[in-house]
Structures are given as C-alpha cells and as structure tokens.
Amino acid sequence: MSEEWIGLDRHAKLMSWCWTGFLTAVIAAMGWAPTADSTWPDRWWVLVGFGLVWLATVVYMVNRCYGRTLLTAAGMEFHTFFSRRKIGWADVTRIEKRSHRVRGGQWWDVHAVRSQGRSLRIPGTHTTRRGDRDFDRKLGRIRKFLAAAKV
C-alpha cells in the first residue's frame, strides 16, 4: 500500500481556531474580573495564573489541530506540533473509535491499542459531528492499513 496522510480538514481547523478564540475571551474575562477591584494588594499573581491556563489551553488546541498521521506499510508516524513518534503495525492489536461526553457536548477520536495494553490517540482523527463521513473514512483507512499489515 502507498503512504497516506491523515489530518483535519480546513473546516475542522477553522472550528478549532474559533473555539480557541472563545476560550481566550472567557479566560481573559476571568483573569480581568478579580483584578478590576482596586482593593486587592497583589493582583499580579491572578493575571499570571490565568495567563498560564490560557497558554496551556492554546498549546493543547494548536497541537490537536495541526497533528497529522502518516500511514505506511510499516506502521504509523504521528506528527504533532511538538513531537514525532513511530509505531509499527506489529505493536498495534486493534484500532478503536472512542466517544467522549461532557456537559458541553460530545466528541469522537481514534485510538491505537498496543500489545502492552496502553492506547495512543491518533493525531488528526477527532470530530464533534455525529455521523461525520470524513472521520469514518479516516477510521476505515487506518483499519485497512492494519488489516493489510496483519496478513
């Protein structure tokens, strides 16, 4: 089989950036509100604390948005904003579609379960849309590469 890249499409990246902007506004409001009261003697630590929370949120969103996976005959190569990792098909026992539900909604992603039992999230394979055809296509391609490698 030839190599194939899996990643988020333009619309998914745009939605990720919209959520990042929304979270930035919420965190900025939460950080500004306590400092608006002039009776607080040491307000700087509140701004630093919320700034660190904001930075962690933005780093997480960018890493998740721009993560991609290269499928090859030998295995998968995970490419995220901060790391690179290779996993051979011999180490993968199965590919799972996982659902996550919180009060704000639901999302799905794909995990590779390794022979040691520890699973790894596959970059570029998450969605918030129910019945997303692009997500199902990616899941099918990963499973097809795994099945071809196991033969």
Structure, described:
This protein has 151 residues and is an alpha+beta fold. It has one domain (1-151): PH-domain like, CATH 2.30.29. It is 44% helix and 31% strand. The chain has helices spanning 10-35, 44-65, 133-150; strands at residues 4-6, 68-71, 75-79, 84-88, 92-102, 105-114, 119-127. The strands form two sheets. A four-stranded antiparallel β-sheet has the order 1-2-3-4, with helices on one face. A three-stranded antiparallel β-sheet has the order 5-6-7, covered by helices on one side. Strand 5 and strand 6 form a beta hairpin. Helix 1 packs antiparallel against helix 2. The protein starts with a strand and ends with a helix.
What topology does this entry show?
Layout: E1 4-6, H1 10-35, H2 44-65, E2 68-71, E3 75-79, E4 84-88, E5 92-102, E6 105-114, E7 119-127, H3 133-150
Antiparallel strand pairs: 1-2, 2-3, 3-4, 5-6, 6-7
